[in-house]
Amino acid sequence: TIPSMPVGPAAGISLYKILSVVLCPHDTRSSTGDTSDRTENLSSSDSCPPHLSDRMFSIIAREKAHLLWSTRQRFVVDPYVMDSLSHLTYYLRDMDCPWEVPIGMIIPRDPHFFSRGDASHVGGGAYCPTLRFWFDIAWSPTTVAGILMTCQSAPGAVHINALEFIVVILQLAAIRVRIDTLSHSGEVAMFPGGLPNIPVWLGETDNTVSKSWENRATARTSQGQGLVSIYAELLRTSRIHTLCQHLPGDLNVVADDISRNDFSLASAARCTKLFRTHPSLASWDFFLPSLELLQLLTSRLYSRHMRVPCVLPTVLGRFVPAGCITFGSATL
Length: 332
Prior knowledge:
The chain is of the alpha/beta class. Helices cover 42% and strands 14% of the residues. It is built from twelve helices and ten strands. It has helices at residues 9-22, 36-43, 56-70, 79-93, 141-147, 160-180, 184-190, 208-216, 222-236, 253-259, 267-277, 291-302, and strands at residues 2-3, 100-101, 113-119, 123-128, 133-138, 200-205, 241-246, 285-289, 317-320, 330-331. A hairpin with a 3-residue loop joins strand 3 and strand 4 (123-128). Helix 1 crosses helix 4 and helix 9 (222-236) runs antiparallel to helix 12 (291-302). The relative contact order is 0.15.
């Protein structure tokens, strides 16, 4: 291992929440609110010189930081930020959590397997050829209603970016379950040279926001932060090196068809319809996320304030053997 000073993704989401409050101490909205609208308004101001329009928000943020450190003023910190501070303090003082990163997580390596996912207004899904699995998930009427809301700040509103990232989270959960439960014969079939100590997973998505959230393990919106905290905890407790790349939508055909299937059909009819177009899926296992994981995702999707750290369920899900098409359907 090689010593590393920056905190890991699990603590990074707490640190980002604190920074959003520190840089905007006078904002009357939520401390985790999206700043993109404010930046756009500042950039489009007629009084702003063109050469400063792209830098305006960073200049103001720097001035606010200077105000914080150069004066003795006191700022009110809400209980949610205090929770984040307590979590960071515990993380930094915990002698069982050394500041080190395995070299396999640092050096650039080619991926050992890839998966592709997608989300639509009716559901989501993904597949992984090397690990021979696929899954789909239907959105509940509540989630669909949230997608159709025009005001994204309204209670119950759901952004498609959040659903795209939920598919990314489920892919990592499925990969972790697959590797943890892989039999000897399965390991030989999927990894003839042996299962790597730290396998490299390449996740491909046609959603640029999901790619950003995965690469940075941070998000500006409170909805995104809640979901990133789940992903960060999965990363912290797994020995999997992750990569995420953008895939043009016209190349994401299989995942696109999975996510846009007719979820009103029973699992048998839904699979039969999908297998006609993509017969290879019929020979792969189906990942069914646990009810506890779905409940955690739902909670973080709709809660504007959440306690940290995120606590993962003991069981993330299970695999339904290939050939079984009466497994029901996961709904979020």
